[in-house]
Amino acid sequence: MKTYKELQGWVDEMAALCQPDRIVWCVGSDEENERFMSELVSTKKALKLNPEKRPGSYAFFSDPSDVARVENRTFIASQLEEDAGPTNNWRDPEVLKETMTELFRGSMKGRTMYVIPYMMGPFGSPLSKIGIQLTDSLYVVVNMRMMTRFGSKVLEALKEQDAFVPCLHSVGYPLEPGQEDLEWPSTPIDYKYIAHFPEERLIWSYGSGYGGNALLGKKCLALRIASKIAKDEMWMAEHMLILKLTNPEGKTKYILGAFPSACGKTNLSMLIPTLPGWKVETVGDDIAWIWMKPDGKLYAINPESGFFGVAKGTSYQSNYNAMKAIEKNTIFTNVAITDDLDVWWEGIDGEVPEHLMDWKKQDWTKDSVTPAAHPNSRFTVSTSQCPVLAEEWDQPEGVEISAILVGGRRPSTIPLVHESLGWKHGVFMGSMMGSELTAATISKEIGKVRRDPFAMLPFIGYHVGDYLQHWLDMGKKSNYAMLPKIFYVNWFRKNEDGAFIWPGFGENSRVLKWIFERCDESVKAELTPIGYVPAKGSIDLTGLDLTEDDMETLRIIDTDGWLHEVESIREYYHTIGSKLPVVLEEELNKLESRLKFFDVNNQNTDDY
Which residue in 181, 253, 326, 356 could disulfide with 330, CB within 3.0 to 4.6 Å? Predict the structure, then answer.
């Protein structure tokens, strides 16, 4: 990190390298933002949407080569290759700096360098970290203003905190005098670099203007760099939602949830329960920073101040609260546009329009064979617009965590919900979580589980084995009885016909209720080799059209399936190498022994 006194010198040094025409320090005011938006519209880089249908909102359209995070061009440049581990792309930091320095040299010619002071985490929080991002992309500026605490107030905080993470970003498209700019400048894939230097707490990003490649406070700082800082400072930076769950008596618990992509994380964080009297409120939908107070309990903050959500599939039916949040003052990227200048994407409510402008800004009709919106189309909106935002979301010390959920898309084997046997077993459950690959992949891979420990596979800033050991070490800091209970959930179990058994969406509140009551040990569970599953009748199914056989399928322990799972986990653990924590291998062996005993005794849980 660098200090406040080093800030101006670093900005000057980077400006000398990148050679912008001018430098603008962002203050974060409404007037400044309006000026930036007007410039983006006038230069045809943004489209102002219909103020009657979508007030204060704008649409952007990226280059087709720049539509998502580029994991194969994302690097962890630790001093030692072994510290990056098997899940990261490693580059020698000195060699990578030399390569990128030449790319950055003159990269901002003809452009403006914007200086973005931003903070991840609430003002006054012991966990909050300050970043200074330099960028030549105004799209990045207006998105970062929504996603982070932003502007002059952060510079004031920096004087006291006196440490910031330097973040340098360029789209890599310098302009010669008189040269016309592109609507979305970027570089070919082989010239894109998203580089993290964990020992220096430094981020350099070149060649992409999109999402997590360019909004450097999000995945780069809040997860990859923060995970390394967290390990060194003994806290945790995790890819997790934070929700507030209140029962009909007014008792509240806070729950973390780690889920890979396409597993309903944002939906769960904004859930509308179907059970009368229960309420879910949002603290965060994507990232949690977790620390342990002297009382031995874990507390979590949401380091972000905005949502950068996937638009496709979002509707009033699938996520009512997200749709309410984006009714105004929202930035949309790579969605389709209706003839009356509103937004549209596959899965949104209502009839499919006869005509649209697609995300490539081409005419689109019902007869078109290509999607109108890009599958990774996005909305960016301030957290403050969430209609179910918990009042504690900005609380500096965070909220006390009662339960941690992990899970993925598993059509078989994994039950609807099961509770760990303890912290170590819970870390084991988080280490082996993942989703099965579907028919969209190469045929020989169908059914194979992509392991994604705690949904952090692309975001761990150091060795995955050390990361899992850190989870175990955090547990050792406390009396285990003070730590949150850990649960594995699976909304995606299918029947023999390939249909989902559990209805999901708002009905997931029934599982949340069971978890809530398990935290108080006020509802029964059945001990099995894999952990505690709901006892018969312990999940409230009132008014739900679900047969007893269906519910039994969601509870059943498929011994053969689990023994196959053991072998798959063992194979995965082998890829981690010598840094795999011994405790996790022991947990795997104990699971195998329990399953074999369980099978021999005809699956009689009384004997087990």
Answer: 326
Whole domain around residue 296: which residue ranges? 238-305+392-600
- Band the pLDDT of 434: cuts 50, 70, 90: confident
> 252 near 245, Cβ under 8 Å?
yes
Check: CB of residue 280 under 8 Å from CB of residue 345.
Answer: no
User: Could you say which of 216, 233, 250 is where a domain stops?
Assistant: 233
d(CA 437, CA 37): 41
Backbone angles phi, psi at 182, to 5 degrees: -85, 155
Angle of helix 138-147 relative to helix 30-42, nearest 10 degrees, comes to 140
What is the model's pLDDT at position 361? 97
- 383 Cα distance to chain centroid: 15
* Residues 61-72 pLDDT 10s: 999 999 998 999
Residues marked as catalytic: 263
133 assigned to some structural domain = yes
* Encoded tokens for 44: 């045809």
β-strands 164-170, 202-206: how paired?
Answer: parallel
Output the pLDDT for position 449. Answer: 84
What ranges in 19-164 are assigned the alpha helix state H?
30-42, 81-84, 93-104, 138-147, 152-161
Q: Which pTM value belongs to this model?
A: 0.95
Based on the domain organization, do 296 and 329 belong to the same domain? no
What pLDDT score was predicted for residue 598? 81
Interval 236-240 mean pLDDT: 98
Choosing from 195, 218, 233, the residue where a domain stops is: 233
pLDDT for 407 beyond 80? yes
> Which residue reads 């990056």 in tokens?
84
Distance CA 379, CA 356 (A): 18
Q: What is the distance in angstroms between the CA of the first residue and the CA of the last residue of the chain?
A: 53
